[in-house]
Amino acid sequence: MNATNEPPLAVEQLCLRRGGQKVVDDVSFTVGTDQVLALLGPSGAGKSSLLLAVAGLLPVASGRVLSEGTDITGMAPHQRPVGMVFQEYALFPHMDVLRNVTYGLHELPADEQRARAARWLDVVGLPLATYGSRDVAALSGGQRQRVAVARALAPQPRLLLLDEPFGALDRQLREELVLETRQLLRVPGGPMAAVVVTHDRDEAFAIGDAVGVMRDGRLLRVDAPGAIWADPRTTWMARFLGHANVLDADGARALGVGDTPLLLPVEHVRARHVATDDGHRVLAVHVRSGLRTATLEMAGQRVTAVVRDAPSDLGPGSMVEVEIDHSAAVPLVDDEA
Q1: How many Cα atoms occupy the beta-carbon half-sphere of 270 within 13 Å?
Q2: What's the pLDDT at 89?
Q3: The model's pTM
């Protein structure tokens, strides 16, 4: 329990340099007790560098890292109340599962090391009796990820950092482990807070209580996942998150929906098949998560719409009429120059 009422992690105006260039630029945020922050951004945004600095594995040019009010900026990595799961797990291939999990527990008596390992291996679904003596090289990718999480949790850190922990796994396994890891971060005796780095929006939105979006070394925004999705605020953010129908001012005027950049949520743009040439020609049809959408051209703009009441053979070349709910348009600021 946090007796200080200070956040498990506070980053204050952090700057990192590499080769004279800033890779993290004036970043500040806090992660509260029992909170998971997902850091989301494209490759090169500075996410992993920021995480490594919090762990003490990269030097800080300026700024501070605090844990429960204590300045840990100058502490060595092993002195910090932090556990870390790396992208490639960083397990020792010449050790079995048990020795990997107990690696950071050398200061404890042997029986307590084994008890800690048994507890966390059980939590991640790899019982010590079955998996403890197995070589990690013989495990599947998902099993290695679970061992890496157990190893990070065994020292009972106050803060857990995960750097692209699902990146090497196939999509179905990633989705399963995202949910499992989310539950692990709520296990009694586990970390007070966690930061997860990812470039995958679905992962960030599934695992994070809050999502922080980074671009070019700067933290643009930290907010609830639903708030960021519903109101991305800028054209870059909207496109990065995967929204269709992100229009510049000219596109908005051409469609008669406004005079400034905006987002037209796909669910508020509806297409209905027409059997004549009096409509808009379909360029492509997609089915994602059970939702059927059509991409078409309207007033020189590519627009994606939800398909309603259309024949099963609707496809490229078909004609549709489109209804746009203008009231659902979300205003944006053009920040892509």
Answers
A1: 9
A2: 74
A3: 0.89
Sign of CA dihedral 280, 282, 288, 291: positive
Position 86 scores a pLDDT of 85
Using one digit for the tens of pLDDT, what is the confidence trace for 105-127?
988 999 999 999 999 999 888 99
Q: How far apart are CA 202 and CA 199, in angstroms?
A: 9
Query: Rounded to whole angstroms, how far apart are CA atoms 12 and 281?
Result: 52
Element (H, E) at 30: strand 21-31
Identify whether the C-beta of residue 222 lies closer than 8 Å to the C-beta of residue 215: no
Residue whose token pair is 């000219």:
250
With cut-offs at 50, 70 and 90, classify the pLDDT of residue 3: low
Helices (H), 59-218: 97-101, 110-123, 128-131, 141-153, 171-184, 201-207
Cα distance between residue 141 and residue 162, in whole Å: 16
Q: Are 97 and 141 contacting, i.e. CB atoms less than 8 angstroms apart?
A: no
